[in-house]
Design a protein that fits this description.
mainly alpha
Amino acid sequence: GGIYESMVDLKILLANNEDGPPTPHSLNKINMLVQSAINNFQKFVEIFNEPIDDIHTYLTARLHIAQLYSKFIGTSLEERTQYIHSSLNVYKWILNYRDNHKDVESVFAEEIKLCEE
């Protein structure tokens, strides 16, 4: 997931440096890489079983998923709204997990602040 995420960041940077708006090919490539990154992080979090031993790693992967949803480039307002809503849902999931697992605050405090914002 992390490699795909880095590729997304590079493609976005390249698209922003182009003359004029990004091409449909660039937008498709970015969205494909975002989806691949999300899929890989999702596969990673699915390997964890309760009780989770490494909460920081587990929640960091979830946090990456939330951040990646906001990197999708929607072509319509409805599509962009859907991506933001998906991102928000993952942030809420992390906060709900924290509420139900009090030990999370001690190992994920800085990241929790980001989720609350």
